[in-house]
Amino acid sequence: MKKQFILLFSILLSFGIASISLAQPPKLKKKDLKAMKEARKQGKKMKKDGWNVAPGALPIEKSLERSWSMLLDYDEEGKKKYLDADGNAVAESKSAADLQALELAKLNLAGQIETQVAALIEASVANQQLTREEAASVTKVVAGSKNMIKNVINEVDPVYKVYREVGRKNIEVQLKIFYDRENAMNGAKKVIRNKLEEETNIIHEKLDNILDLK
User: Fold this and answer.
1) What is the pTM (predicted TM-score) of this model?
2) Based on CB atoms within 10 Å of each CB, which residue in 38, 126, 205, 213 is the most buried?
3) Do residues 108 and 87 make contact, with C-beta atoms less than 8 angstroms apart?
């Protein structure tokens, strides 16, 4: 009985080892392979140009790999899943340069969102039978929405951030941020709708239709 148990255990153990050895690691997606390739190429150039990361941060190549992966990420409709924006600043300290670069990146991002929302609204206004005055009010509010949109963008951490010394005292910072496109568009539409509700007499139903809000 003991011999049979040992034999059975040996068979199961050998089968388990065989199963483990036959298991293959998951294949990388095409976009991930491209991200790795572009990250290595870009990282090499950036290091040559004097860029480096802060102590304790991910290596340049790893940060760039994540950045490229997000740049190459598309949704089911073939649209980019994330909006991205760059920020660059020079200051006497890292913290000051960080703040300036992030602010510029958020303004850049808000400008992209404003442009995309404006295009959607322009196409929608013609179908809503607005008066000339109502259409002008919508156009005016949308054109001045950049700072409003920037203020509703949630806290966003840079996917990568690099530094290099400039001259004797200054530090240059370069960073890139990403924001989910769908969330960005919905947030922008809501803040524009609130502004239109404050400044115009356009009925709620028309506002919802113009902004494609359900």
Assistant:
1) 0.78
2) 38
3) yes
Give 20's pLDDT tier (boundaries 50, 70, 90).
very low
Torsion sign over Cα 123, 126, 132, 135? negative
Give the torsion through C-alpha atoms of 88, 92, 93, 97, to 10 deg. Answer: -20
**In this structure, what is the dihedral angle of CA atoms 37, 42, 45, 48, given to the nearest 10 degrees?**
-100
**3-state SS class at 159:** coil
Residue 25's pLDDT is 44
One-letter amino acid identity for 170? Answer: N
How far apart CA 203 and CA 196 sit, in angstroms, is 10
Which residues, other chains included, contact 33 with Cβ-Cβ below 8 Å and sequence gap of 6+?
none
As a dihedral over the C-alpha atoms of residue 93, residue 96, residue 100, residue 102, rounded to 10 degrees, the angle is 100
Spatial distance between the Cα atoms of 98 and 45, rounded to a whole number of angstroms: 22
Q: Are 33 and 70 a contacting pair, CB within 8 Å?
A: no
Whether 160 and 60 have beta carbons less than 8 Å apart is answered as yes
